[in-house]
Amino acid sequence: MVKLIFKEDNLSMKDRTFGIIKPDAVSKNLIGAVLKRIEDEGLKIVAMKMIRMTKAQAKGFYKVHEGKPFYESVTDFMSSGPCVVMVLEGDDAVKKYRAIMGATNYKEAKEGTIRHIYATDIEKNIVHGSDSRENAEFEIGYFFNALEMKGD
Ligand code: GDP
């Protein structure tokens, strides 16, 4: 019989989500402010790096939005400068990080959320966060390999 040596680890693994500190936030020196909000809310940063996406990589990342009027523009923006990609861990991480970020449109974002405080544009809205566990796994795999993930 095959022994499922990783079964227990998988079951006990906390929820993970994927986030980006977008190029507008990096250019405004907001990396530290965003990370502080995330850490203050109790999410753990378990992987992180600064990258600059090519247009093709940005298009692959936002493939779900292909065909939408803002697809070209948002992928130009996402490849316009460096950004910080990260994996966050914690209880109910996907939902929790979405709540910390606030609504896509900063005008609708609740007070105290990252987008409410820092965003000035529906497109250049400071941060990205996965909207489901399934998408989080895809997005983590898009940017990180197993060696880059902190294991403890
Ligand atoms: P998110 O999950 O809250 O980031 O929002 P979506 O998945 O709906 O959209 C992805 C990203 O595309 C957003 O974060 C914005 O940067 C951009 N975006 C969304 N809606 C619009 C829009 O109506 N106009 C423009 N210009 N950009 C948009």
UniProtKB/TrEMBL annotation:
GO biological process terms on file: CTP biosynthetic process; GTP biosynthetic process; UTP biosynthetic process
Main location: cytoplasm
Active site location: H128 (pros-phosphohistidine intermediate)
Single Gene Ontology MF annotation: metal ion binding
EC number: 2.7.4.6
Family matches, as SMART domains: NDK (SM00562)
Gene Ontology CC annotation, any one: cytoplasm
Catalytic activity of the protein: a ribonucleoside 5'-diphosphate + ATP = a ribonucleoside 5'-triphosphate + ADP; a 2'-deoxyribonucleoside 5'-diphosphate + ATP = a 2'-deoxyribonucleoside 5'-triphosphate + ADP
Domain Nucleoside diphosphate kinase-like: 14-151
Localization of this protein: Cytoplasm
Cofactor: Mg(2+)
Key words of the record: ATP-binding, Cytoplasm, Endonuclease, Hydrolase, Kinase, Magnesium, Metal-binding, Nuclease, Nucleotide metabolism, Nucleotide-binding, Phosphoprotein, Transferase
One Pfam match: NDK
Residues binding ATP: K22, F70, R98, T104, R115, N125
Family affiliation: Belongs to the NDK family.
Physiological role: Major role in the synthesis of nucleoside triphosphates other than ATP. The ATP gamma phosphate is transferred to the NDP beta phosphate via a ping-pong mechanism, using a phosphorylated active-site intermediate.
Listed HAMAP family: NDP_kinase
Subunit description: Homotetramer.
Cited NCBIfam families: PRK00668.1 (NF001908)
Full protein name: Nucleoside diphosphate kinase
Origin species: uncultured Desulfobacterium sp
UniProt gene name: ndk
